């Protein structure tokens, strides 16, 4: 997929070419507007589709893995009402998962974050505030958010997380610069459960299992009872199909911590 720097370069070349041609032929201003619209469309869509790898490279699956492994991941926790239930289910089915945690949640519920690690799961950075305006933060503010979260996780667990998942899956040049400066590795997904929507448990489970293959990364959220119930059915499905959930760093063969 075309990356943001490439699109910018192509756009610049196109504008320069039109300006040169405009010396010999009159170029309609609509042509410039059309180019601007195309650039803006790519940039906006790319910002909201992390799997495009448009603004920054992210890891979404591992098709080369030889074993029948997948990675279940959870965003937005830890949550006092639901994360403990998720941990109990994972332990019951001997499954491992990865939790991309929000800094202020770890600050409030550090005991749960510690239990995530104690149970052999991976913990990652999912911003401090998970603000709806995160996509509009400047580079320095993004850096401060990510640093604050990593510091809190290290204070609670003793581990310095190097895996990052963008809030809402949104990426942009500011986030890209921050991630690069902090030397974080961005982890996406290739199966989005949509468990935070009004879809039923049955629909969500079918959305996951109907196309599940080895090497896939599944996105869930440890923030609702519905997800807990979907998780148990998913773990049963994996068991019946001789599949195993592992941590995302194991699936991708990368380091989770500094």
Structure description:
By secondary structure, the protein is an alpha/beta fold. The protein has two domains: 4-48; 69-252, TIM Barrel, CATH 3.20.20. It is 48% helix and 12% strand. It has ten helices and nine strands. It has helices at residues 4-24, 29-48, 83-92, 103-108, 110-118, 139-157, 173-182, 201-209, 225-240, 248-252, and strands at residues 58-59, 69-75, 97-101, 122-125, 163-164, 185-187, 191-192, 217-221, 244-245. The strands form two sheets. Strands 2, 3, 4, 7, 8 and 9 form a six-stranded parallel sheet that branches. A three-stranded parallel sheet has the order 1-6-5. Strand 7, helix 8 (201-209) and strand 8 form a beta-alpha-beta unit. The longest helix has 21 residues, at 4-24. It is globular and about 75 Å long. The two termini are 30 Å apart. The chain crosses the membrane at residues 6-25, 32-52. Its EC number is 3.5.1.104. GO terms for molecular function: hydrolase activity, acting on carbon-nitrogen (but not peptide) bonds. It is an enzyme of class 3 (hydrolase). This is Peptidoglycan-N-acetylglucosamine deacetylase.
């Amino acid at each position: 997929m075309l990356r943001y720097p490439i699109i910018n370069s192509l756009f610049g070349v196109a504008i320069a070419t039109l300006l040169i041609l405009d010396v010999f032929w009159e170029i309609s201003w609509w042509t410039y507007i059309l180019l601007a619209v195309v650039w803006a469309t790519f940039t906006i869509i790319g910002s909201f589709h992390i799997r495009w790898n448009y603004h920054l490279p992210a890891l979404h699956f591992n098709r080369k893995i030889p074993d029948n492994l997948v990675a279940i991941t959870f965003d937005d926790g830890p949550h006092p009402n639901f994360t403990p239930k998720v941990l109990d289910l994972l332990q019951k089915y001997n499954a491992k998962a990865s939790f991309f945690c929000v800094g202020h949640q770890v600050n409030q519920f550090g005991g749960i974050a510690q239990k995530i690690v104690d149970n052999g799961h991976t913990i990652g950075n999912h911003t401090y505030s998970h603000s709806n305006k995160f996509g509009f933060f400047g580079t320095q503010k993004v850096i401060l958010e990510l640093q604050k979260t990593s510091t809190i996780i290290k204070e609670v667990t003793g581990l310095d997380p190097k895996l990052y998942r963008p809030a809402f899956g949104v990426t942009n040049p500011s986030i890209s610069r921050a991630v690069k400066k902090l030397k974080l590795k961005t982890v996406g997904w290739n199966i989005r459960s949509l468990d935070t929507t009004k879809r039923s448990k049955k629909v969500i489970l079918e959305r996951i299992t109907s196309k599940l293959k080895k090497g896939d990364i599944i996105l869930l959220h440890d923030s609702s009872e519905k997800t807990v119930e979907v998780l148990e059915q998913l773990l049963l499905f994996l068991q019946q199909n001789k599949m195993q959930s592992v941590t995302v760093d194991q699936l991708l063969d990368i380091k989770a911590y500094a």
